[in-house]
Amino acid sequence: MLVSVKFNKINSEVIKKFLDLRPLYCVVKNNYSQKSDDLFKCYSDQGAFVGKYEPLNEQDYGRFVSKRAGSREPALTRQMSKLPALLTELRQFQEDLHRPPPVARDVMVTNGGQHGIYQCVDMLVDPGDPVIVNEYSYTGIHVTLKPLHPEIIGIPEDTDGLIPETLESVLQDRLISGLKMPKMLYIIPTGSNPSGTVVPEERRRKIYELACRFDFIIVEDDPYMFLNYTEQTIPSFLSLDTCGRVIRLDSLSKVVSAGLRAGWVTAPAPLLSKLELHMQGELLHSCSLSQAILHRLLVEREALATHLLSARALYRRRRDALHEALQPVNGLMEWSLPNAGLFLWARVRGVEDVYKMVFETAFNRGLMLLPGQAFTYDTSTPCQYVRLTFSKIRFEDMNIAASHLVSIIKDEQARTLQKPQRLATEH
Ligand SMILES: Cc1ncc(COP(=O)(O)O)c(C=O)c1O
């Protein structure tokens, strides 16, 4: 049927849609740019972390592994079906991009980043354990942690992401008070979801130092690494990892296709073997077709770079356009330009809790926002933040969305003012 469609009959809408999707198709073009050298550089010229801390040894990892994960045993007859060519390619890719210090590590293919998160939580967290996360973090970590009823240690962030000094004082206080110490920090270092912050190199080094000093593992979830609009080379935690304390999660969901479910974990060998045992009981291996596609994407690295650069340019244009379109909302809402990723995180002024505003007023007027609660462990706490995304909105819809936002916030502010205020004597 497609063949019979006359060219002159092709609807202009279809062409427009195709152009919208263009970045997905760029991968076939071979237009390697100079810029890709920086795109694929995730290590610092200053080198890895240098400190007084010893690398962890095989026995050390035992204290991080949850009871569940520690009780898994290899089956006599089961084997994961791996794609050796893909593993070779992934190992090389990680080596080239991150130049990790010499610690025995390996990679394992996952069904996207969320799968990696789930696997890490299962491996590292026992019921009730304390876990460090950003004060506002990706929903996917919270839903995974929920059944384990952890103690969430939410660390505030500023425009440079998680604040290491706060983390340090929280950990120091816990130590002095004899409280259970966390074994895991979950962090989205580039383009945090929801805040869009990028943690600078100096902070990464400080956080890494804290991991060594207070003895925890860093789970570095970095699906937005290729959408870093600062274009500055920032070393990954993996690239700093002299002591074998980093598990790195990669995914192509944000830059190639979420439906492909293409991700991979890079971890110290003793931890990776635990993840593999879990995988054996969970799904044996991810879809071979997806693995083959992932392999092809990585092998064609120059074409991949062209595609990634074009995706980054597209989303940067969208970010800038949304920021511009939102100027009428300035004063009603506060935000800073996200340095990476796909989200704009904003505090709404004069509204104690955005929940109703998002799910009733905004939704009824055709505007989809996410309330800040979606990024907290306890979703019942009132929150003044909303998350906007520029991943899908069309350029031509941005101004109208902004004007809806103005009226929605004004209505909500008026409603807040009308609400009877609690008296100081009331509880
Ligand atoms: C920080 C972060 N990690 C992981 C994921 C899940 O990615 P994937 O589709 O690769 O599972 C998301 C998706 O929104 C995300 O924002």
Automatic annotation (TrEMBL):
InterPro entries: Aminotransferase_I/II_large, Class-I_PLP-dep_aminotransf, PyrdxlP-dep_Trfase, PyrdxlP-dep_Trfase_major. It holds the Pfam family Aminotran_1_2. SUPFAM superfamilies: PLP-dependent transferases. Keywords: Aminotransferase, Pyridoxal phosphate, Transferase. Its cofactor is pyridoxal 5'-phosphate. Residues 84-404 form the Aminotransferase class I/classII large domain. It comes from the Eukaryota. This is Aminotransferase class I/classII large domain-containing protein.
